[in-house]
Every structure is written in structure tokens, then in C-alpha cells.
Protein 1
Amino acid sequence: ATCLIGNRDVFSEEDEHFKTCARTTLNKLEETTQDLLVVDARRTRPSLKRFRSEDARQELVEILASFSQREKVRYVQGINEIAAMFMLVPRVGDSPTLVLEMLTAFTRKYAPWDLELDEESDHSSSAFSRLKTRFTLLSYLLIYHDPDLHMRLER
């Protein structure tokens, strides 16, 4: 399959193809955005073994970069935590392609404000208000759909 950056159907089911496309996407981002993705990946759930390896952190960076490119939005801090949740789902978390698909579907349905382009900086009160709303909604969804996972993540 070819790598058509920017097209919503860019990622095939093959994760190797995803990784190639994701690296291309990552290299096209501004250096400050790349640095932010790396920092956020390091901050993501460091108490969980799943996120301590450099490979897992790099995979998260690639998922976040691909998400931003696919949805044509600037990366916003906090989306890493939503992506992390999907990386923990059995039989899904091992596939960055599926994690990206779930992150995209979740965000489109439950957090469309993350897809809005904001003229303000990421440090504005508007961005932080959306971040707080995002985590409150995510917490309620987890309590309803998977209380055990919610309790594990809250520890």
C-alpha cells in the first residue's frame, strides 16, 4: 500500500506500513511539536510497565503525530493520555494502527472540541478548559464502560 499523508485512509491494517507513514508524518512536524510529543510520551503513565520502554514511547509519539496529521489539528497536550488508554486495551494496544483508529473514533464522537483549530496558544485558558473537560468525560466513560480499567488507571 502507498503512503498518502493527509488522506484519512492512509493507514493500512499492516502496522509496519503505519510505522513508515508515521515516521514520515513525524519528520514533517515542526521541531517544537516533535519535542512536545516526546516529552508528553515520557510523562505518560510512567508507573505502568507498558510505557517504560523506549519502543512504547516512540509508538505513542508516532500515534499522536499521525492523529494530528490525519485530523489536521495542532497537537494538544492531554491527548497522549487518551491514546494511552487504548494502548492498554488487550488485543488492540499491540497494534498502533488500531490504537490510532480508536483514538480517532473516540475523539470525533466524544471530544470533537479537540479537533477545532484554536487561534490561541496551547497554554490559554481555553485549551486548559478543554483539557479538564476531556478528562472528566473520559473518566465518566471509563466508569460506565470498564470500571476495572478505570480503577487501574486511577491508581
Protein 2
Amino acid sequence: RLWSKLLTRGVLTALLALTAFLFSLNSQANQGAAITAAFTVLVVSQIAFAFQCRSTPDEGFFRKYLTNKLLLGLAFLVIALQVSIIYFPPISRAFRMESLLLKDWIPILVAFVVSSLPLDELFETRVVEEDQAAEEESNGMVAEAASVGPNEELG
């Protein structure tokens, strides 16, 4: 079960990074900027994943983001560091990053939103509901079998 969640997240992140790479490559025709956009998608998707790992039963979607002040502060710090790696020339040269245009941030923001969606919870809810339905059906069959006498047939 854990492996399937990790595989799903990994494939989703890879597709989002590839999308950002191709979008930036088409908008700037600069491979360095495309690599920077893909790397930034990896960073923001990991931030979103950190929030997804936080267990908040029966709480609202945004509560997961707003109640843990330490995680929220660290997420802003990571984003600030990533932006400085992209736009502060001495650091960007050290990391071989290229500046991104404003439109290059569109797939990065989309990647963050998609990575933030509670996909695991949606799949888990569906599985739990299916398990509950199967259990109720099983209990109904047991109750029906118990109500039938030894010489009677099930209807």
C-alpha cells in the first residue's frame, strides 16, 4: 500500500516536472531555464508532500497548512531560498540556475496545487467505503443464513 502511494506520487511529480520543463523550454528556448523550472517543481512538490504527510483527521483542507506554524515557516524559508538560488546572481551561478520569466511560474504553481490535493485521502476514502460495503454485505448474508432453518434453502 505504501509502495503504491510512493509510486503514484513519484510518477505525478515526474510528470509535473516534465511539463514545467517543456513549458519553459517552449517559452524561452533556453534549456537552463527549463532545467530551473523542473527543479523548482521538485522543490515545491516536496513542500506540498510535507504538508500531505501531516495527519489531521476530521479537519478542513486548509487547516493542514495553517496549524503547524513550524512547518509553515520552514516552507516559506525553503521557497525564499529557492527564489534566491534562481534570482541572486552569485548563488544562481554556483547552482547553474537561470532566471525564470513570470509565465514560467505558471506550471510551477499548478504543480504545487496538484501536489497539494489530498489524492491519497480520496483513494483511501473510496477503498474504505468499498470495504465497508463488502463487510455489510457479508454481515447481511451471515444474518440471512442464521435465520434460515437447517432444512430450508437460502432464497
